Amino acid sequence: MKYRVRYIIAAAAVFLASLLMTPAQAQSDSVKYCLTGSYVSTDSGSCFHESTQTDVFWFNSHLIGRPVLYLLGGPGLYPEPHKDRLQSLSNHLRRPVIVISGVSNAVSSRSRYDCPEGQTGWIAPTKRQVQKFSPDVEASNIVTCASALTLSKDWLEDVSPLKHAQAIKTVRQDIGIAQWDIISESFGLHVFWALKKIDAAAISAVIFDSPDTPWVPSYFHFGQHLDKAFGEFAEGCRKDWLCPARRQNLKEEIYTWLAPDRYEPDAIIDVVDVKSGAVDGYVLPSSEQVAGRLVQSLMTVRNPNRLPYIFSAHSREQFQDRLGLLFLRYGRESQNLVSFAGYHGGRCSVLPLSNWYSALLKDAAQFPALRPFLKYISETQKVACQSLGIEAPTQFAKPEGLDTIKAFIIGGALDPVTPMSVIREAFSSAAQVDYNVYDNVGHVVSSAQPCIVEDMKAYLDDGQAPLPSHCRGRDLKLYYFTPVVVR
Fold it and tell me: How sure is the predictor about 483, in pLDDT bands with cuts at 50, 70 and 90?
């Protein structure tokens, strides 16, 4: 009770004070409030919680209402590059949103958990710096990166879901929050299960966005999920008369251009910004890279609309000319989004990767055009785990409390990572779960469209999934990219 009183009084004081301030002053004041007690300021506008060594981002702390704890995916995601979407989410929910990092954003932390700048990546600023992609070179980069890290003896425990959950509980108690709602995306579900074990009384309404469910075997068949996502996307194109590839079988076209023999061995591609016309970089593409960017495009909000134009090319030369669009970068994509050790440490220590490797091998046999890419991601993950000295677990037990969980689960129809068919199977024993799947969006949908956030807000406010959804067909429509031709 005393925590709730402290929170209400402090939040009300900040709100009243903010009415007399400029927006910049109000933001500064909310940061100062967050920095009371055991907090110190950071350049990112967050709060650094000294006892847990975590960064705390508090969006719209002046708003009255039950706060929302947002668990980022990844694993190992840094919150800072996601501030804009989290601020927007908080604005639409009209709730305070709090993000507590699993890996500190501080410079000292980055030097421990990350490799030197430019260690990996294939988009070069000049043609002279372009690297010819090969899985062997990528593996070598990973080994070099891992050897450059200065990890403590217990570093793996520091980046574990349990340690993250313990830090979250401590921060909640220090701030004085009695209860909060939780939105968890993707791998953040593992932190949620850990938090539920140690701090269940503080959890109110729950939303899972594209949750990670490795306790069901179908989860590991990424090749099958990717094939279904291609089919879903191609069907949407076929039904839309504005889609550049409407009269073609887009799924077959995609597989055609993923074949390794479709690429000129020395053809450097200009990555051109479609708005300014400026060259954003250069790349020497391979089938593995093209498949990787294709997956990223399906997963992210703005990128799928370019795919029909790219993959409906009628010749190798035309495909090469259009390929730069696939490598075009948007905003935060060029930033360091994830901790190397946090990402691979989380995956290697939590997921039964032998199941994943086995499933990818079977998928590669089923979908030959995907074989180079599936082999590449499998071998790359193995090298990362070995370089960090981690032996992955052999199984993942069904989470405790799964059958009685009450939650609203949302996902995208184009998601090849955590497709809704797998999610439904994973939560089939949970009687109090509602689902909503959204057309034309991929992995992690909460930032895709305002109507999706309205669905989330309705659930957090009322405790029931909105039926029907606030989203209508036009809200989720894809506006396909076609170049403007000057005649």
Answer: confident
CB 263 within 8 A of CB 323: no
Token pair belonging to 386: 């070995």
The three state secondary structure string of 119-140 is CCCCCECCHHHCCCCCHHHHHH
Integer-rounded Cα radius of gyration of the chain: 23
Bridge partner residues of 433 (DSSP): 407
- The residue among 439, 425, 432, 438 whose CA lies nearest residue 465 is 432
Type of residue found at 470: H
Q: Are 346 and 75 in contact (CB under 8 A)?
A: yes
Whether residue 363 contacts residue 373, with contact meaning beta carbons closer than 8 Å, is answered with no
Q: DSSP characters for 185-207?
A: ETTHHHHHHHHHHHHGGGEEEEE
Share of the chain above pLDDT 90, in %: 46
The length of the chain is 487
204 burial class (0-12, 13-18, 19+ CB within 10 angstroms)? middle
**193-241 pLDDT tens trace:** 999 999 999 999 999 999 999 999 999 999 999 999 999 999 999 999 8
Cβ neighbours around 279 below 10 Å, total: 14
Cis peptide bond N-terminal to 468, omega within 30 = yes
The DSSP call for residue 7 is H
Select the CATH number that applies to the domain covering 2-108+155-216+398-472 from these four: 2.40.160.210, 2.40.260.10, 1.10.3720.10, 3.40.50.1820: 3.40.50.1820
Structure tokens at 329: 């970068």
Beta strands in 301-422 (DSSP E): 406-412
Q: Sketch the domain layout of the chain as residue ranges.
A: 2-108+155-216+398-472, 116-148+217-397+473-487
Write the CA distances from 403 to 189, 193, 219, 399, 431, integer angstroms. Answer: 15, 13, 19, 9, 7
